[in-house]
């Protein structure tokens, strides 16, 4: 960091807000992944238990299916939103293959879009958006 207060530039506020939204969506995806795994595991255990009963309870299975379907739909929506936010952040960055310093609320952070590996200087198979906070 060449200038210790460079990251506090007012012109970077829209980018900062977009990166915060991007990180929030990323966190929501991670939490929902855990919830989905839990629901799937619960569904498997409940399915095995109901298979052993003579009179299975259909309403519990239906509720579990509804919860699982709702969580899967929410995951699809979050993934689409995440991809959209990623593209918006990339478009807002002033240049590629270089970090921009931002204030994400807890000191200087960096965000950059990289198409070249910084160690090998080779083209990456897939470009990467990096956020260091």
Write up this protein.
The protein has a three-stranded antiparallel β-sheet with strand order 1-2-3, covered by helices on one side. The longest helix has 40 residues, at 13-52. The chain has one domain (6-132). The chain is built from two helices and three strands, in the order H-H-E-E-E. The chain is of the alpha+beta class and 133 residues long. Helix 1 (13-52) runs antiparallel to helix 2.
What is this structure, in a nutshell?
By secondary structure, the protein is an alpha+beta fold.
SSE inventory with pairings:
Blueprint: H1 13-52, H2 58-92, E1 100-103, E2 108-116, E3 123-132
Helix pairs in contact: 1-2
| Largest sheet descriptor | 3 strands, antiparallel
Task: Give the SSE string.
Answer: HHEEE
Structural class comes to alpha+beta
Q: What's the overall average pLDDT, rounded?
A: 86
Task: Write down the domain tally.
Answer: 1
Radius of gyration, CA atoms, in whole angstroms: 21 Å
As laid out across the biggest beta sheet, the strand order is 1-2-3
Helix percentage: 55-70%
Spatial gap, N to C terminus: 14 Å
Keywords: Coiled coil
Please give a handful of descriptors for the protein shown:
alpha+beta; 3-stranded antiparallel sheet; 133 residues
């Amino acid at each position: 960091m060449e200038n210790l207060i460079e990251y506090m530039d007012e012109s970077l506020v829209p980018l900062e807000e977009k990166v915060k939204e991007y990180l929030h969506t990323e966190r929501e995806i991670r939490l929902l992944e855990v919830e989905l795994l839990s629901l799937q595991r619960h569904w498997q255990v409940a399915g095995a238990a109901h298979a052993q009963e003579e009179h299975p309870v259909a309403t519990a299975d239906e509720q579990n299916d509804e919860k699982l379907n709702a969580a899967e739909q929410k995951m699809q929506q979050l993934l689409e939103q995440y991809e959209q936010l990623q593209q918006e952040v990339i478009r807002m960055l002033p240049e590629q293959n270089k970090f921009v310093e931002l204030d994400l609320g807890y000191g200087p952070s960096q965000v950059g879009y990289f198409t070249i590996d910084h160690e090998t200087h080779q083209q990456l198979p897939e470009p990467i958006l990096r956020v260091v906070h």
